[in-house]
Structures are given as C-alpha cells and as structure tokens.
Amino acid sequence: MNDAPIVVHRASGTGGRRVTVRGRIMGLAHSDDHLVEFLRLAGLPDAWDLLDDPAWVEWQGGQAHEYAAG
Q1: Does a structural domain hold residue 68?
Q2: Which string of DSSP letters, residue by residue, matches the chain?
Q3: Which terminus has fewer CB within 10 Å in the chain: N or C?
Q4: Which branch of life, at top level (predicted)?
C-alpha cells in the first residue's frame, strides 16, 4: 500500500469499485467516467490526469481501469 489520497478498491462481486478519497467513501465506480466524476465532486477538477499517477491513485485488487466483477 502507498499513501495515495485516492484509493480504487477491488471490484465488488456485482461489478464496480468503491472509491475513497482521503478515507471518505465517494461511491461505487463502474467506469473511469464515474471515477472522474467522484474526484471532481471531491474538488479535483483535472482528475483525468491523475488516474495513472501512483502518487495520487492506488488501484487495489485488480488492474487499473477495470471495473467488472472478477
């Protein structure tokens, strides 16, 4: 684990990934578009540029940008 402020957790059994920003649950993302909207709501308007930056986003339990149930 790292100290990234954004964590995209492993996919749920029904699909989608829980997103937390600094420990606050933002919602269940089913796509990068959903993820970016959650980050915008958290005050990060240029979130597309952050998705692949491990200093900002930690993708747990699966490949980055994949939201389907495993």
Answers
A1: no
A2: ----SEEEEEEPTTS-EEEEETTEEEEEESSHHHHHHHHHHTT-TTGGGGTT-TTTEEE-SS-TT--S--
A3: N
A4: Bacteria
The answer to whether residue 10 is domain-embedded is yes
State how far the Cα of 16 lies from the Cα of 63, in Å rounded to an integer.
13
Token pair 């937390």 is found at 20
* Token pair for 8: 């995209």
Instruction: State pLDDT tens for residues 28-69.
Output: 999 999 999 999 999 998 899 999 999 999 999 999 999 998
Rounded to two decimals, what is the model's pTM?
0.93
The CA distance from 69 to 56, in Å, is: 24
